[in-house]
Amino acid sequence: MATPLKTRIAVPRSRDNSVDGIKYNRSGSKRNNFEMFAWLYMRVSGVLLIVLIFGHLFVNLMMGDGVHAIDFGFVGGKWANPFWQTWDLIMLWLAMIHGTNGVRTVIDDYAEKDRTRFWLKTLLFLASGFILLVGTLVIFTFSPCPTGADPSLVPSFCPAP
């Protein structure tokens, strides 16, 4: 009768977190609660995003003429109201940070080398920061009423020149 093959599995939260020679980035030297707060953020932001996204979809697709009414004037009219600017800004920030945190977790789980993990996360944070910056600027600097434009082309809510 053959003896069963024994597999060594590291004890969770132990100092020896290596399995098959791979050292995972889960050392006990970091004594902060970042991962707990990141986990909690994912849950809270996920619930808030459900409300924000379905509210966004309802207003854009179900009210008025639906998808056929979405054009430059529709977006300009929405973003002329500070309520919708704030709604879209919160949705942008929550979604980007939520997604970035999820990809950060995937990088931590699958990138084996510290150097690879560092560069992937650096690229991720730079890209996310750039998108947040540009998205925020677009929301707050968007002008649906350009000066000097043909009055027949500007939305009806713009003041006459």
From TrEMBL:
State its location(s).
Membrane
This entry's Gene Ontology molecular function terms read:
metal ion binding
Keyword Secreted belongs to the record: no
Q: Which GO terms describe its cellular component?
A: membrane
Q: Which UniProt keywords apply?
A: Heme, Iron, Membrane, Metal-binding, Transmembrane, Transmembrane helix
Q: Where are the transmembrane segments?
A: 36-59, 79-97, 118-142
Q: Which domain of life is it from?
A: Bacteria
Q: Please report a single Pfam family linked to this protein.
A: Sdh_cyt
Q: What is this protein called?
A: Succinate dehydrogenase
**Organism source for this protein?**
Rothia koreensis
